[in-house]
Amino acid sequence: MASALVISFSGFLVLLHAASTTTPTSKGRMRFMDDPVFDDDLPAEDYNDSAEKISLVLPRLDVGGRFDAVLAQCLPDYSRSRLARWINDGKVLLDGEVATSKTKVWGGEVVDVSAEPDPAEMPFTAEDIALSVVYEDDTLIVIDKPAGLVVHPAAGNWTGTLLNGLLFHFPELASVPRAGIVHRLDKDTSGLMVVARTLTAQTDLVRQLQARTVKRHYLAIAQGKLDKDGRIEAPIGRHSKDRLKMAVVETGKPAITHYQVLEALTGHTLLECRLETGRTHQIRVHMAHLGHALAADPVYGGRPRQADAPLRSALDGFGRQALHATRLALQHPKTDEAMAWERGMPEDMQQLLQTLREARDDD
């Protein structure tokens, strides 16, 4: 049995191994709103929830202000009148209690919003978006998602998403919650995703995700040098100051990432990561927490420790986190057959890897 070293890292454990409801409208249309910071694995109870769930802490104020006015500054994607209506309808809680739009706030209060979509404004239509279909049958579809494609419509991305493309190519998905999507990839993460074609299949896949029997492997290029395979177990939740970011926090949800060192590069390491849980930005957050943020990650990254001008130019030009979902394995919901799919890195990530190899060989 391989030996292991357990170290305490910022209050959490890192184990290093010595050995390696949406509502159908008309055909191809559905109404839906999504939260960009939900877990990547969509919980079963979330499937019939058409409301976007938002939690935030109000900023400190020198003087008190009206609840609706302060909230409108924090959530500029929604009008003040709409926020006031939600507050007065009890869809916004202030420190866990119903408030009014005129309630005075001082900052530091915790706000929970159930942002109900306006049915007249939220019809999501089928769009002719090119999709790379790796596999399909009457039960499920496997997609190789390109970097740059948002999975779900949300604030700032109401069109041009994977969901819109799925509705075009598979119109029957309009009758399946979330167009059959059961897990997510970040906009700028490429790779394999499974989509259910029936409600029965969707329920089964969600249960497999909850049971952690779906195997998801990623190729990642991390900053710095890692010599040993490892396991990161550290809870993930919203960042205390930046609500669009996630972070390792004591109050977060359990999160476990396994990683294997594949190749040493100049100032970087090629890894294979395996998710045991599916938290938002999990690999990106865990590797940054470990001190090895993913190469070119615009949110959790920072400048590489070791890079000459050509390499720095390549990293700056890459423009996204170096992360690709390379392998997906699961049990077929209908036949119970064990199935697996693999897809190599997309061209941009291959080019970055080649640049890093050439820089290493020139040292």
Gross geometry: globular
Order of helices and strands: EEEEEEHHEEEEEEEHEHEEEEEEHHEEH
Please report the number of helical segments.
7
Query: Beta-strand percentage?
Result: 25-35%
The span between the termini is 36 Å
Radius of gyration: 22 Å
Average the pLDDT over all residues and give the rounded result: 84
- Major β-sheet, in short? 11 strands, mixed
| Structure class | alpha+beta
- What are the segments in which pLDDT stays under 50 over at least 5 consecutive residues? 1-38, 43-50
Give a quick precis of the structure:
This protein is α+β, with helices and mostly antiparallel strands and 363 residues long.
Plain-language structure description:
The structure is a single chain. Residues 1-38 and 43-50 have low confidence and may be disordered. The chain has helices at residues 67-74, 80-88, 162-169, 199-210, 282-289, 309-318, 347-362, and strands at residues 4-9, 12-17, 23-24, 29-31, 52-57, 65-66, 92-94, 97-98, 104-105, 110-115, 123-125, 133-136, 140-145, 190-196, 215-223, 230-233, 236-238, 246-248, 256-265, 268-275, 323-331, 338-342. It is built from 7 helices and 22 strands. With 363 residues, it is of the alpha+beta class. Helices cover 20% and strands 30% of the residues.
